[in-house]
Amino acid sequence: MDRKGLTRIIEEAFSLHRLEEYELVEGEFLREQGRRVLRVTIDKPGGIQLADCEKVNKALDGYLDEKDPIEGSYNLEVSSPGVERPLKKRADYERFAGREARVYTYAPIIRGSKKLEGVLRGLQGEELLLEVAGEEVAIPLDRISKAHLVFRF
């Protein structure tokens, strides 16, 4: 099953079970230690607690058992995005403006590097603005392979 199909199924379950308070950050199939895992990452204003993960897990598990859209066996895991939350959507870059992030690109952007770390400054058209070492860098969104917040201990 492709990522879009998986996202559609999860969003259907969220809608059916009135889970609109939760944001689907990411849904992905992985193979870990020889087993298939459907990992669903959720968020909501104020953060995610264990009870939220349990609630969403129960709703998704029931929906997926009933509809049976995924062939074969797998383990369902529902979790919070954690302190180094992935940035997946345009809205994420705006929402977390002012926070530190690490951005990976498909091709080098500055000084031959595909890995940039700096402060999110939002979006300008189809580009992410990232302040790197005091310099504002514009990164085309279609050149970003992965991005996440950075947490300093």
Task: Describe the fold and architecture.
This protein has 153 residues and is of the alpha+beta class. It folds into two domains: 3-79, RimP-like superfamily, N-terminal (GMP Synthetase, Chain A, domain 3); 90-149, SH3 type barrels (Roll). The protein has helices spanning 3-16, 50-67, 90-95; strands spanning 23-32, 35-43, 75-79, 100-105, 115-124, 127-132, 135-140, 144-149. A five-stranded antiparallel sheet has the order 7-6-5-4-8. Strands 1-2-3 form a three-stranded mixed sheet. Strand 6 and strand 7 form a beta hairpin. It is elongated. The relative contact order is 0.14.
Secondary-structure map with pairings?
Layout lengths: L2 H14 L6 E10 L2 E9 L6 H18 L7 E5 L10 H6 L4 E6 L9 E10 L2 E6 L2 E6 L3 E6 L4
Parallel strand pairs: 2-3
Antiparallel strand pairs: 1-2, 4-5, 4-8, 5-6, 6-7
Briefly characterize the structure.
The protein has helices spanning 3-16, 50-67, 90-95; strands spanning 23-32, 35-43, 75-79, 100-105, 115-124, 127-132, 135-140, 144-149.
H/I helix tally = 3
Widest beta sheet: strand line-up: 7-6-5-4-8
Number of domains: 2
Report the average pLDDT across residues.
92
Under CATH, the topology of the largest domain can be stated as GMP Synthetase, Chain A, domain 3
Largest sheet: 5 strands, antiparallel
Q: Report the radius of gyration as a whole number of Å.
A: 17 Å
Regions with pLDDT < 50 over 5+ consecutive residues? none
The 3D shape can be described as elongated
The CATH architecture name of the largest domain reads: 2-Layer Sandwich
Total strand segments: 8
Please state roughly what percent of the residues sit in beta strands, choosing from under 5%, 5-15%, 15-25%, 25-35%, 35-45% or over 45%.
35-45%
Distance between the termini: 38 Å
